[in-house]
Each structure stands twice: as C-alpha cells, then as structure tokens.
Amino acid sequence: MRNIIIIIVILLISSCGKGTFITYELINETGYGLVIEGYSHRGVDSDIILAAEKMFLEENSTISFQRAKGEVTDQRRFFSIPSIDSVRIIFDYNKLLVLSCPIRITSRNCHSIFNYSVAKITEEDYNNAVNINAD
Questions:
Q1: CA 105 to CA 65: how far, in whole Å?
Q2: Contact 56, 41 (CB under 8 A)
C-alpha cells in the first residue's frame, strides 16, 4: 500500500507544470523545396519589421511541431512570433508567393493555407507564385 501511495505522489509531482500543447503540421505537396518566412510590423515602429524563424521543407514532405496553449502562445500558431502580417513562400529559390494578412493579429487570418492546425502548400500555390529570377 505504501508503494502505491509513493508511486501516485511521484506521478502527481512529475505531471505538475506540464501544459497543454497543440500539434501543427505543415505539408509541402509540391515538387519544390520551400522556405517560409513570416513577418510582422504591427505594434512596433514602422521602421522595425520582426521576422519569424524561417521554416524549410523539402519537396513532398511534412514537418510537425508543437505550440503550448495559452494566452500569448496561442497567437503564434505556425510562426515563432505573433502578429504576422505577411508570409513569403519561396519555391526552390526561383518563385515567390507573398501572402498578405488583411486584418487582425494572427496567422490564422493570413491566408487559407494557415487557417487550421494542418497547412498545405499545393501546386496551385506554386502556380500563383511569381518568378524571382529575371532571365
């Protein structure tokens, strides 16, 4: 009986401080490598632009990551900073798709790609991108 009580106490102590997390998936359904960059200038000087960590995806691949649930962390969703107002998707360093977030503060409002916990970059997105290199 004493061992059971000790085990229960250990389990309770070890579970303290652990928050709830949401898993996000970013899926590249194209045959191109991707670089995804999120930017924000909301809430700071107009001369300052905050850049989220770049995300890299190989062709036809998926990355998964977790974000802690909470008042502040929920705002980040796919990006390492909140208040994203534009997203750049670069396909094999040849084509660029810029997504502008029309209003409000989260990537959730930025584009249908980032509306849910699973985001997909498709061939249609590639076709909507513009050439970077002038030939």
A1: 21
A2: no
Global pTM value: 0.70
User: Could you tell me the pLDDT band of residue 107, with boundaries at 50, 70 and 90?
Assistant: very low
User: Terminal CA-to-CA distance of the chain, rounded, Å?
Assistant: 78
d(CA 129, CA 40): 21
Paired residues of 104 in beta bridges: none
Torsion of CA 130, 45, 40, 127, to 10 degrees: -10
d(CA 6, CA 8): 5
How many residues in total does the chain contain?
135
Q: How many domains, in total, are found in the chain?
A: 1
Question: Which one is predicted more confidently, 16 or 101?
Answer: 101
For residue 99, tell me if it sits in a domain: yes
CB 52 within 8 A of CB 82: no
- Which is it for the CA torsion 34, 30, 133, 39, positive or negative? negative
Structural domain harbouring 65: 19-131
Residue 98 token pair: 């810029």
